[in-house]
């Protein structure tokens, strides 16, 4: 199974701004944040009409998955708004939010609902006890949060009726219709589409402890190292 990288041209058109992890520095302890109610978005006449109770499981709906937590909720709210704002069929979008199993789900649900009263969404608690012991400290402390790894478990977290899902990080803003991205052809042998990077300097991606352990660092020996960014994935 391979990852395809045909997304690059689409990403150029969509111009997704990634506000990298600089946000980590600005996160302050928050009890509850308040957001304005977004204006209502309407489907254009050409949109399929999907019966409301089934949208979260409909093959015709566009499914978006994101993680939501208290620290990054500002980014998530902006991302949701940008998805709806540029979509010609915003009512055919179903959101699947991965939250920490220890998070206050009712608070997160209330926060999202008060800004987006007509949003179709469901929260999925992610029990990170199985992931937490596998995380080694990295160069970016924001990556140490187990919820970051919930995206790897999407297939088991989301109901099996969902055939395709777009995973989005909460630090991006869409500036064009997400349906274009969702329509990407994956072909027969690919499990997901993501942008690939082959000229990154991996030295700074790992800690000195990693590089000093040959058992780990030899992974890169005689190889052309590439990685794909998991911030935007079509799965
Ligand atoms: C969750 O948040 C709600 C609303 O702020 C609050 O009333 C409730 O006590 C919280 N629950 C927990 C378990 O913290």
From TrEMBL:
One of its GO terms (cellular component) is membrane. It comes from Gossypium stocksii. Keywords: Glycosyltransferase, Signal, Signal-anchor, Transferase, Transmembrane. It holds the Pfam family Glyco_transf_8. It is a single-pass type II membrane protein. It comes from the Eukaryota. It is found in: Membrane. This is Hexosyltransferase. Belongs to the glycosyltransferase 8 family. Its EC number is 2.4.1.-. Its main location: membrane. GO terms for molecular function: glycosyltransferase activity. Pathway: Glycan metabolism; pectin biosynthesis. InterPro entries: Glyco_trans_8, Glycosyltrans_8_dom-fam, Nucleotide-diphossugar_trans. Residues 1-26 form the signal peptide.
């Amino acid at each position: 199974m391979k990852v395809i990288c045909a997304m690059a041209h689409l990403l150029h058109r969509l111009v997704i701004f990634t506000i990298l992890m600089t946000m980590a520095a600005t996160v302050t302890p928050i009890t509850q944040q308040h957001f304005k109610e977004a204006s209502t978005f309407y489907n254009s006449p050409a949109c399929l009409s999907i019966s409301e109770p089934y949208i979260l499981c409909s093959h015709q709906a566009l499914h978006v998955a994101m993680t939501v937590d208290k620290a990054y909720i500002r980014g998530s709210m902006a991302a949701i708004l940008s998805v709806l704002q540029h979509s010609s069929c915003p009512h055919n979008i179903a959101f699947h939010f991965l939250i920490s199993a220890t998070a206050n789900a009712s608070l997160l649900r209330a926060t999202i609902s008060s800004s987006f009263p007509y949003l179709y969404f469901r929260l999925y608690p992610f029990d990170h006890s199985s992931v937490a012991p596998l995380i080694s400290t990295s160069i970016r402390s924001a990556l140490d949060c187990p919820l970051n790894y919930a995206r790897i478990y999407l297939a088991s977290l989301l109901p099996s009726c969902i055939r395709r899902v777009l995973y989005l990080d909460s630090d991006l803003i869409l500036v064009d219709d997400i349906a274009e991205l969702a329509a990407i052809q994956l072909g027969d042998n690919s499990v997901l589409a993501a942008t690939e990077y082959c000229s990154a300097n991996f030295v700074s991606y790992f800690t000195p402890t990693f590089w000093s352990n040959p058992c780990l660092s030899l992974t890169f020996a005689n190889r052309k190292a590439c990685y794909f960014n998991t911030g935007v994935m079509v799965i």
